[in-house]
């Protein structure tokens, strides 16, 4: 463990960490029972199956607006790989979080402010021009451009607007 000066902290591990103050998070890969580095281990069949099921659930939650191919392509881009075969077990938590968040958003479930920001950013990354349209909306409506600085109500309104434009884009593209 590396020590830092006063007023800062160091944490190692994985998962969601919420703290106040200056925190440096270091991800360390623990070796598996076989002595292999988990960061290099390919996805197991069970993990691949779970990602496939989550992909189908996202498509169902989107009510057919997007295909499994679109979801997988967006997931691969988010993870930074060309195909699911290139994903490692270390990528699996990030992938499931991405797909679960997309599914919850598409299903209209209540999500946290951080999750709402993540979903707006997801839609911006997938649909060309959506960022500009949403930014114009937030500038005109709330005199804000930064999602992080919005109140929960402003963020919900922005997410709803973004989802409406998302739906219109896919309906027009699929027509």
Total discrete domains: 2
**What fraction strand?**
5-15%
Helix content: 40-55%
Let me know the number of strands.
2
Could you list the spans in which at least 5 consecutive residues all have pLDDT below 50? 1-36
Strand arrangement within the widest β-sheet reads 1-2
Compressed to H and E, one letter per element, the order equals: EEHHHHHH
In angstroms, what is the radius of gyration? 19 Å
Main beta sheet: strand number and arrangement?
2 strands, parallel
Helix count? 6
- Average pLDDT number: 83
Question: Looking at the structure, what is the overall shape?
Answer: globular
End-to-end gap: 57 Å
**How does the helix and strand content classify structurally?**
mainly alpha
What would you say about this model in short?
The protein is mainly alpha-helical and 175 residues long.
Question: What can you see in these coordinates?
Answer:
The chain is mainly alpha-helical. It has 2 domains: 70 residues, no CATH class; 66 residues, no CATH class. Helix content is 54%, strand content 6%. The protein has a two-stranded parallel sheet. The protein is globular and about 50 Å long. The N and C termini lie far apart (57 Å). The relative contact order is 0.09. The N terminus is likely disordered.
Task: Describe the secondary-structure layout.
Blueprint: E1 8-12, E2 22-26, H1 45-61, H2 68-79, H3 92-106, H4 113-126, H5 130-142, H6 152-174
Parallel strand pairs: 1-2
What tags apply to this protein structure?
175 residues; mainly alpha; 2 domains; two-stranded parallel ribbon; 6 helices; 54% helix; globular; disordered N terminus
């Amino acid at each position: 463990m590396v020590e830092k000066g006063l007023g800062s902290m160091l944490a190692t591990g994985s998962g969601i960490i919420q703290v106040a103050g200056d925190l440096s998070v270091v991800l360390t890969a623990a070796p598996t029972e076989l002595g292999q580095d988990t960061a290099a281990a390919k996805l197991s069949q069970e993990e691949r199956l779970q990602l496939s099921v989550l992909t189908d659930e996202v498509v169902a939650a989107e009510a057919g607006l997007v295909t499994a191919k679109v979801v997988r392509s967006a997931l691969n881009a988010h993870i930074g790989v060309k195909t699911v075969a290139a994903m490692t077990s270390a990528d699996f938590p990030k992938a499931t979080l991405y797909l679960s968040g997309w599914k919850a958003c598409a299903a209209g479930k209540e999500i946290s402010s951080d999750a709402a920001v993540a979903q707006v950013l997801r839609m911006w990354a997938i649909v060309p021009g959506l960022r500009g349209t949403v930014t114009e909306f937030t500038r005109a409506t709330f005199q804000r451009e930064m999602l992080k600085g919005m109140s929960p109500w402003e963020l919900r309104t922005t997410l709803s607007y973004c989802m409406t434009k998302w739906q219109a884009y896919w309906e027009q593209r699929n027509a």
